[in-house]
Specification:
Largest sheet: none
Shape: globular
Number of helices: 7
Order of helices and strands: HHHHHHH
Length: 167
């Protein structure tokens, strides 16, 4: 009699690949960037570090814009199967041939992440901005609700009730 294998089904692998697609792609990008930045010339590594630092600073100062940009790019990239495969191929090619671009993206996202995490822990300008803008939005929505209720009550007062039949 034959042995029964207790292997992993193809459907399980596909399910995990779909569930962890972003993590797999980013890990692949990190690995390829690390390997090929060491293979290429030393001057590229120097420029990669400089670009990483500069875009890290940009990510800290413009964290909200970077967050919107990254989320829109990822939403576009993983919307369709063909687009996501094309996106993964482009990321792999950039990591192999131009690892400096990968360092730039990593620096931008690292600056954004550092900004958001530090604003959760300490007293940051973005935290003050978020509190100020959320309080303005709350007061604006409260004023709109108050005006709507006032207009409805005025319309109700002015209603003659002519359409209601008298008995």
């Amino acid at each position: 009699m034959g042995k029964k294998f207790s292997g992993v089904a193809v459907q399980e692998i596909e399910g995990k690949a779909r569930r962890y697609a972003v993590e797999i792609v980013v890990s692949l990008m990190f690995a390829l960037t690390a390997i090929f930045s060491l293979i290429w010339d030393g001057s590229m590594l120097t420029w990669a570090i400089v670009l990483f630092a500069v875009l890290g600073i940009v990510g800290v100062w413009f964290a909200h814009w970077v967050d919107k940009l990254c989320s829109s790019v990822l939403n576009m990239a993983f919307r369709d199967k063909f687009v996501s495969i094309t996106f993964i191929i482009i990321i792999c090619l950039c990591s192999v041939f131009v690892p400096i671009v990968s360092f730039a993206v990593i620096g931008l996202m690292a600056g954004k992440a550092f900004h958001f995490h530090s604003s959760e822990c300490g007293n940051s300008s973005s935290k003050k901005f978020e509190e100020h803008s959320s309080s303005e939005q709350k007061s604006a929505s409260f004023d709109q609700k108050k005006e709507t209720v006032h207009e409805e009550s005025e319309n109700h007062k002015n209603d003659n009730h002519e359409d209601i039949p008298k008995t």
